[in-house]
Design a protein that fits this description.
This protein is α+β, with helices and mostly antiparallel strands and about 400 residues long. It has helices at about 5-10, 55-65, 70-80, 85-90, 100-130, 155-170, 175-190, 195-220, 230-250, 305-315, 335-340, and strands at about 135-145, 265-270, 270-285, 290-295, 325, 350, 370, 375-380, 385. The strands form two sheets. Strands 1, 2, 3, 4, 5 and 6 form a six-stranded mixed β-sheet that branches. Strands 7-8-9 form a three-stranded antiparallel β-sheet, with no helix packed on it.
Length: about 400
């Protein structure tokens, strides 16, 4: 295994004056300790005492998986024969490996919140070693296309109807069966009609089902029904059904659901239109270490999300970021005021101004207006003027 191998560098320890900085994976054990118990399954005496796979080993496997872009199966196959992988994982040549399905279970058990905690812990280690400074953050976003097939409006409404009925079936199976029969009748009766009429019929039926489901929800609340997974599934389905119904009745409604497979995905534009999410990151300008990550839907306000990234880092690290730089998408008054507010984040913001193209049409251009008296007096082309008092705490020139 070459001395310059990447995994040897990641796993190295501090060495005299060289002071090689590494990731301390062992310290992450305590961050996931509450995910495990001494008894694997207390209700099964025969399973009590069965040892769990080492969570640090699983975290390292996840590290290898994402760094080398490997699937669960691929990373384990590689770890079986790759000496560098085994060196990094602290495994001998004879040591066994977890089963393929365990990695998926591990990710589910940790959830997004603990992964965020692990991420913040790594950034914290970098700060302790003096790698991450608070001088400047570089913020930018790219697009992540959702791995889904976007259904037509007709199919989306039909899928929503089926999900709502399925979630209500444990409570009223007879009424659900009748509603499913009605859905089948609508499907058969509208088979030869136009798409517009087929959609209308399904929207009308979904509206009836939403009203019925809201009544059922009130009955469950009145009866103090237990808040378990079944109830949560029903409540979530009803909330989503209301949203799908609203956008089906009003095509101009913003923030549309595009898929029930991934109901958080949205349609947005990043050079071209796409369906999915943004991958928004904040980077330390000195070390080039990512200090905050967010994945809002594709239609989210990318510029305004700079506040989310900075606040997320400062809450996790208890630090004070001094400045942020982003592209011209942040050249907007509301965003700049929020980031620069001395009573808030108090950041110095570096944003290249946008170039506004003057129109040759029948409308007035910016150069037709005058700003005098330090920008507090506005004079329009018709010589009408208006004076505006400066905001408190400003010179009035902004």
């Amino acid at each position: 295994m070459p001395a310059e191998h990447y995994l040897r560098k990641v796993k190295s320890v501090q060495s005299g004056a060289d002071c090689i900085v590494t990731i301390d994976f062992e310290s992450m054990r305590v961050l996931v300790a509450d995910c495990y118990s001494a008894d694997t399954e207390p209700s099964r005496p025969d399973l009590v005492g069965r040892g769990a796979e080492d969570p640090v080993l699983l975290i390292k496997l996840e590290f290898l998986q994402f760094h080398y872009r490997l699937s669960d199966r691929e990373v384990l196959i590689e770890a079986q024969v790759n000496v560098a992988f085994r060196f990094f994982l602290d495994l001998s040549l004879e040591s066994g490996l977890p089963s393929v399905g365990l990695l998926s279970q591990f990710r589910t058990r940790l959830g997004s919140e603990r992964y965020q905690t692990l991420f913040d812990a790594v950034v914290g280690q970098a700060r302790e070693h003096g790698l991450v400074k608070d001088r400047l953050r570089l913020k930018d976003a790219t697009h992540v296309i959702a791995n889904i097939a976007v259904p037509s409006a007709i199919r989306l409404v039909a899928q929503m109807r089926a999900r709502l009925l399925s979630s209500a079936e444990p409570y009223t199976p007879e009424q659900v069966a009748a509603a499913q029969e009605r859905a089948a009748e609508i499907r058969q009766a509208t088979a030869d009609l136009s798409n517009e009429e087929r959609l209308l019929q399904r929207v009308v039926h979904l509206r009836e089902l939403v009203i019925w489901a809201e009544g059922l929800q009130q009955e469950l609340d009145a009866a103090s029904a237990p808040s378990d997974e079944t109830r949560q599934r029903f409540d979530d389905a009803l909330t989503l059904a209301v949203k799908v119904l609203t956008q089906s009745e009003d095509p101009e409604v913003p923030d549309k659901v595009v898929s029930l497979v991934d109901p958080d995905a949205r349609k947005g534009r990043h050079g071209r239109f796409y369906t999915g999410y943004q991958l928004d990151v904040s980077l330390d300008a000195d070390s080039e270490i990512i200090t905050a990550v967010d994945a809002p839907p594709a239609n989210a306000d990318e510029a305004a999300n700079a506040e989310v990234l900075v606040k997320r880092e400062e809450e996790a690290q208890q630090n004070d970021v001094q400045a942020i730089s982003m592209d011209s998408i942040g050249f907007r008054g509301s965003v700049l005021r929020t980031l620069q507010d001395p009573n808030g984040l108090g950041l110095t913001v570096y944003v290249p101004p946008q170039e506004w193209n003057s129109s040759s049409g029948p409308y007035f251009n910016p150069e037709h207006f005058q700003l005098v008296n330090e920008g507090r007096l506005y004079i329009c082309p018709a010589a009408q003027s208006r004076e505006v008092a400066p905001r408190p705490g400003t010179s009035g020139t902004g």
